[in-house]
């Protein structure tokens, strides 16, 4: 379905730039809706999932909250609160950083790794929802999106 049909727009866009911008925002929201659908049974947010993926990529190396923030997709998230919630569920561990009482090292726990594997298997369902593009088209889409951010 076209963007105009999806948002029930009756007038044409003023420019291709305007249409592309609205299309990116609409598609971002569509993807977030899909992600939330797959994450809901696990009682985890997109931002918590992102933190677990960042920690898992550390390969047992601790990382500070500030380093997590630097790597997060959603820079507006409160990473301390997200880590607290993951800590309460036993998915991450925290240790006070030596020499800096305000900072702590965060790592993913074995329970967090196992949980992340289960969540990741489920969220792969989004790929089925987006199977209308070929690998070549996904490559081109990635190239164009990267180009926008230059």
UniProtKB/TrEMBL annotation:
GO terms for molecular function: DNA-binding transcription factor activity. GO terms for biological process: response to stress. InterPro entries: HTH_MarR-typ (IPR000835), MarR/SlyA-like (IPR039422), WH-like_DNA-bd_sf (IPR036388), WH_DNA-bd_sf (IPR036390). It comes from the Bacteria. Residues 1-150 form the HTH marR-type domain. This is MarR family transcriptional regulator.
């Amino acid at each position: 379905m076209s963007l105009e049909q999806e948002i029930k727009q009756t007038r044409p866009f003023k420019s291709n730039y305007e249409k592309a911008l609205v299309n990116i925002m609409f598609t971002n929201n569509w993807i977030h809706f899909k992600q939330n659908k797959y994450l809901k049974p696990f009682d985890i947010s997109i931002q918590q999932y992102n933190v677990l993926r960042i920690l898992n990529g550390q390969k047992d190396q601790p990382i500070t909250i500030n380093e997590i923030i630097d790597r997060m997709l959603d820079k507006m998230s409160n990473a301390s609160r997200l880590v607290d919630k993951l800590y309460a569920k036993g998915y991450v561990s925290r240790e006070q950083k030596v020499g800096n009482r305000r900072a702590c090292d965060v790592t993913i726990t074995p329970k967090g790794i196992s949980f992340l594997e289960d969540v990741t298997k489920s969220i792969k369902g989004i790929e089925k929802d987006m199977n209308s593009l070929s690998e070549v088209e996904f490559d081109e889409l990635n190239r164009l999106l990267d180009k926008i951010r230059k």
